[in-house]
């Protein structure tokens, strides 16, 4: 269980990160909207609702469109390879389409009724439309990349296809974990490395590939993105238990309600102390309950489980793991030659991922 002493993270340069995310969003959103316009009705409308461009009645809206970390990484990686940010835009759009394909399906599979503080697509438009629009976004990602990605599009498409397969593999294992009594820490890390790390790794390298970077550069950027993805997911796992619903847009104890075997949970169970043993007994009993029985739990029962996870050390371990992955991400690109401004943006984005509230 001991993976080294926790690493102290510096406070993120929020101004630099905000500028980077806004630049990535400004470059990517027009191309993303144009891509979605290719979809046939009603899929174009359903997708527009999902992205926050319209409300449930079809009126223009400006809902929270998410953090936009992946598009920012894609255009930044193009700059790391000496290309202009615009070169990375087809990659940014493709990655964002794949990411949102996964969100549409995840919300349905998990039964989540809220995303970004409003009803999810399946809740508003029905499960069939959520599935079809997700499938459409997945297909559209490859189309955009291959038709607009330039001479290196095929290399980029291979990386995106591999990342997407790993994302789906990770999601399948995540679901299977919910029906198991016990999951190991290393198993959980491998699952999260696929479910979250693979697409962030692709985002961090795809712009560079489109800009003509060699495999050494692309692989180093991919390694940065992989560890960043693991840090990102570790923080998500913390927020999934202890996050403020006003910031996360989800229910209190959201991951515990779904019996998710997230990092804090598996790390706590793996500990050798009384709280871990008590938690293990509760989770073993929980696994034998029907979904209806489990949903009848009151807030105190979820709070008890969260308290035991923290007492056993699961929260502290996960926080330390996020910081360790943060350091590993920055180490992966340490020897790459790139403009100082670009390197500082990679660093600021890594800091932001580890220190956030939603």
UniProtKB/TrEMBL annotation:
Molecular function via GO: metal ion binding; prenyltransferase activity
Source domain of life: Bacteria
Keyword Magnesium: yes
Keywords (A to Z) from UniProt: Magnesium, Metal-binding, Transferase
Entries under PROSITE patterns matching the protein: POLYPRENYL_SYNTHASE_1 (PS00723)
Keyword Magnesium listed: yes
Entries under SUPFAM superfamilies matching the protein: Terpenoid synthases
GO biological process, one term: isoprenoid biosynthetic process
Family: Belongs to the FPP/GGPP synthase family.
Protein name as annotated: Polyprenyl synthetase family protein
Organism in which the protein naturally occurs: Streptomyces alkaliphilus
């Amino acid at each position: 269980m001991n993976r080294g002493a926790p690493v102290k993270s510096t406070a993120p340069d929020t101004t630099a990160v905000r500028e980077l995310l806004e630049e990535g969003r400004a470059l990517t959103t027009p191309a993303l909207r144009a891509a979605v316009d290719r979809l046939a009705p009603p899929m174009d409308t359903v997708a527009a609702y999902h992205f926050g461009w319209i409300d449930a009645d079809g009126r223009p809206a400006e809902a929270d469109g998410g953090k936009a970390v992946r598009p920012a990484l894609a255009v930044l990686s193009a700059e790391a390879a000496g290309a202009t940010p615009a070169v990375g835009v087809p990659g940014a759009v493709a990655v964002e389409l794949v990411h949102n394909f996964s969100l549409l399906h995840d919300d349905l599979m998990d039964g989540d009724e809220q995303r970004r503080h409003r009803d999810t697509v399946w809740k508003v438009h029905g499960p069939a439309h959520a599935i079809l629009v997700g499938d459409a976004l997945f297909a559209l990602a490859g189309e955009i990349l291959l038709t607009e990605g330039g001479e290196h599009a095929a290399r980029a498409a291979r990386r995106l296809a591999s990342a997407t397969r790993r994302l789906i593999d990770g999601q399948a294992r995540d679901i299977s974990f919910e029906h198991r009594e016990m999951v190991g820490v290393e198993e959980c890390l491998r699952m999260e490395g696929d479910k979250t790390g693979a697409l962030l790794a692709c985002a961090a390298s795809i712009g560079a590939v489109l800009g003509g970077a060699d495999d050494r550069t692309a692989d180093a950027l991919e390694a940065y993105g992989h560890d960043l993805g693991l840090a990102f997911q570790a923080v998500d796992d913390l927020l999934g238990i202890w996050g403020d619903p006003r910031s996360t847009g989800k229910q209190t104890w959201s991951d515990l309600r779904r019996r998710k075997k997230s990092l804090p949970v598996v790390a706590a169970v793996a500990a050798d102390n009384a709280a871990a043993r008590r938690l293990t007994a509760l989770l073993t009993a929980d696994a034998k309950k029907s979904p209806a029985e489990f949903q009848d739990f009151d807030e105190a029962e979820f709070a008890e489980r969260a308290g035991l996870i923290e007492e056993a050390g699961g929260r502290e371990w996960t926080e330390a793991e996020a910081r360790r992955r943060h350091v590993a991400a920055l180490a992966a690109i340490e020897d790459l030659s790139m403009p100082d401004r670009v390197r500082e943006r990679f660093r600021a984005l890594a800091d932001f991922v580890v220190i956030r509230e939603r």
